[in-house]
Amino acid sequence: MTAAERAGDVLVLGGAGVDTIVRVPELPLPYADSYMIDSGIRTRAGQTGDFVALGLAALGLRTHHLDFLGDDPEGDLVRALHAGHGITLTALPQPAGTKRAVNLVGPDGRRLSLYDTTRGHPGDRFPEATLRALAAASRHVHVTITQPGAHALPVLRETGVPLSTDLHDWDGENPYHEAFAHAADVVFLSAAALADPERTMRRIAERGRARTVVATAGAEGAYLLADGALTRIPAARPPAPVVDSNGAGDAFAAAFLYGRLAGEPPERCARYGAIAGAHACTVPADRADAIGRNELLRRAAAPSH
Question: Which strands form 88-93's sheet, in the order they lie side by side?
């Protein structure tokens, strides 16, 4: 069986890598010559594409992940993560090495990420034949905003497969994000850097293809723009103490897409997303864990969560 024949429900493009987690006493971190990190400094696989793929697989969706990986210990961590969770991975060789980041995590779960931008080349491209075959064998494609994904967008649009993307903390102005925002059918982003989330969301819908735009707002819930109507989605109650917000947006996107592929209306999809995001905030940064389908549906059926 070829990789394309195994693609299944969702193809995730890009965003594979490794994070080094450092728990710090506060953010921003005041200057000092040194800090003693009693909780340990840990490196684990899991960047945005990994976490979306993990969330989708935990919800029972057949998931395929395509990205560049180095022949290095970090790449081995990524490969092991996918193998351990039953996620099919097509790893293209990356001589510059596997993507890496350092995440400083504060006591309240907020994080500051430092990304190593040397782990790639401007000319990196997903092979067109591979891209077309995997997309054609999938019900949906989720495109991370890493650089090869931008060049994949025209090919993906030609396939006719529905697309989603996550713009993360876009400020609504950076032109790099616009190609992703205007090509996708479903757009996720964070409201953190937006002075007027509704205005940005409506501009995405007016200028692009998206009929659904979601702006997550942490403890304040999320904004959902679906077919021109704006709805506020309340935050879900975390099932345990909040320890780390890393991966919460990816969990939201995965659960939203699960609902969409199951034929649920947008508000129900957003409720799934809020529940999954709240769950992710209770998972320590050095673990890769996602809410399962039975637990998601149980919490969604409860009168409060």
Answer: 88-93, 63-69, 8-13, 138-143, 163-166, 186-190, 212-216, 222-226, 229-233
